[in-house]
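Sequence in, structure out.
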Amino acid sequence: MVMTNEWSIQQLARLAGTTSRTLRHYDQIGLLPASRAGASGYRFYDAAGLRRLQRILLLRELGLGLPRIAEVLAEDVPEEAALTAHLGWLEAEQERIRRQIAAVASTLDARRQGEEPMAEKMFDGFDHTVHREEVTSRWGADAYARSDAWWRGLPSAQKKRWQDETAELAQEWADAAERGIRPDSAEAQELAARHVAWLRGIPGTPAADGGDIRGYVLGLADMYVTDDRFGANYGGTAGASFVREALRHHVGG
């Protein structure tokens, strides 16, 4: 006889590094129903429940809220296809992080030797396309496809110039935050205007397409703070918070 494995809510919480309270909440909102409830009311989960929770946690790492995760899980996509897509994203993320580690290590090594790092190596791994899942989930596959096509179609010299301008803008934001200027100051608002103009220059985004620019900017501003990968561009959480407040003031948030 084949035995069906199942895990109690406490066991699953320990396995997934979460809490029983979180799992109960997921059950209550229909996101992760228990496979059965015992006589004492304790919830139990089968293998399918474990796989579903894995997908939920992966989607949370992409920055999706619970309502959007519910929509994604409700789509008629075979489980293996969804997992394959997740695996591809994770492998790409692994490679991006490896490249970033190498880039930062190269910069650190150069500085320790009293040299300036090679500009061509400093931004390896900081390609805009690494956020494909976020762009697709938030603004649709067409937005990513158009943005990606624009980027891949740029000559190397223009890509380099765009990367340099992006890095310069991020550094100026970080510098302004470190100096403690007010988000509503003229200097901060000039940076905010440049930031919005930079966003408008990326095809496929609401900023470029004349869509809800205010909502788009406010959403990005929040993401800069909540996602460490974005916040790192502005000197960490404090810098990202400064950018968010300046952008909010700029678009009337």
